[in-house]
Fold this sequence. Notes:
The protein is about 45% helix and about 15% strand. Helix 4 crosses helix 5, helix 6 packs antiparallel against helix 11 (about 330-345) and helix 9 runs parallel beside helix 10 (about 300-315). It is built from 11 helices and 10 strands. Strands 4-3-5-6 form a 4-stranded parallel beta sheet, with helices on both faces. Among the domains are: about 40-90, no CATH class; about 190-320, Rossmann fold. The chain has helices at about 40-55, 65-90, 95-110, 130-140, 155-170, 190-205, 220-225, 230-245, 270-275, 300-315, 330-345, and strands at about 10, 20-25, 25-35, 115-125, 140-150, 180, 210-220, 255-260, 285-290, 320. By secondary structure, the chain is α/β, with parallel strands linked by helices.
Amino acid sequence: xxxxxxxxxxxxxxxxxxxxxxxxxxxxxxxxxxxxxxxxxxxxxxxxxxxxxxxxxxxxxxxxxxxxxxxxxxxxxxxxxxxxxxxxxxxxxxxxxxxxxxxxxxxxxxxxxxxxxxxxxxxxxxxxxxxxxxxxxxxxxxxxxxxxxxxxxxxxxxxxxxxxxxxxxxxxxxxxxxxxxxxxxxxxxxxxxxxxxxxxxxxxxxxxxxxxxxxxxxxxxxxxxxxxxxxxxxxxxxxxxxxxxxxxxxxxxxxxxxxxxxxxxxxxxxxxxxxxxxxxxxxxxxxxxxxxxxxxxxxxxxxxxxxxxxxxxxxxxxxxxxxxxxxxxxxxxxxxxxxxxxxxxxxx
Length: 348
Ligand SMILES: C=CC1=C(C)c2cc3[nH]c(cc4nc(cc5[nH]c(cc1n2)c(C)c5CCC(=O)O)C(CCC(=O)O)=C4C)c(C)c3C=C
Ligand SMILES: [Fe+2]
Ligand SMILES: [Fe+2]
């Protein structure tokens, strides 16, 4: 029989004097996305990039070799360039990635939260950190916590870094909560359904018929794929399932990879090179979709919707539109509710 649990707050009944006050019996659901700088200024971006790019899951080079390069040329020049890019997408409420992730957690909590279940969010890098939110959930009485990385496709660079940091946070705790990690959802019917519906709705709203849909995923170094990271296959499966769902002809949707970093080869074909080449091949009307991102962020709003558009139009494209991510739509919250049910099974 499934244990239902009981919320207990304060001194347990029949406990001897001096027994510490305890709060227990609740379940936490922690939604985690990548993270973003606290501001667009040089210092904030530098602090964020330093934490992000020091993660051995992101850069698989010995720190003895990598740290001098990172702390030297990269963190001298990149924060200014990235800060300028962040300025173009920043909102009154802050970074879009943070704003949407916070709203997703609040909306999901309003829908499924209860005296027993608390939904919250954290960021892998920057604020609010995973450790601070695991501590906060524990303090609220959550002795079981399901951590859900908000990446549909699994990659060691992203999903594993979320779970590494979650387990790191437990190291200093005397009374650890039970912690669960979540399976990827690149092929989950609820995700495919939500993505397909949002893309087809976007296409129907346009005043042109796209000749191709570019499914542009964040890239990873090719070497990580060769060492066994399943991300590439997960991306291709998402594209195939969405194409099948929408009855698209073979080749109408293309899988490409964006956001290269550093001099090594990354997964191909590259989004930027593809956008530059398509007009010459006679493809002048394109819709871009970002299936690796649940929420709009720097990579969708600046790299694709601004930089990508400019290079496509300069190369001879005539029509270009970007489908928004699921963000804080009802579809996003429906999807999160389905994923929460899957990950909390047996606990709630
Ligand atoms: C080696 C470097 C990087 C790897 C590997 C990588 C993988 C990866 N990243 C995302 C999602 C996001 N990345 C974002 C920004 C971003 N990514 C890198 C580098 C790597 N990412 C950098 C240096 C940056 C910062 C911006 C910049 O300086 O260009 C973001 C946006 C964050 C925001 O604040 O909006 C997201 C989201 C995935 C899914 C992924 C591998 C699958
Ligand atoms: Fe990235
Ligand atoms: Fe980028």
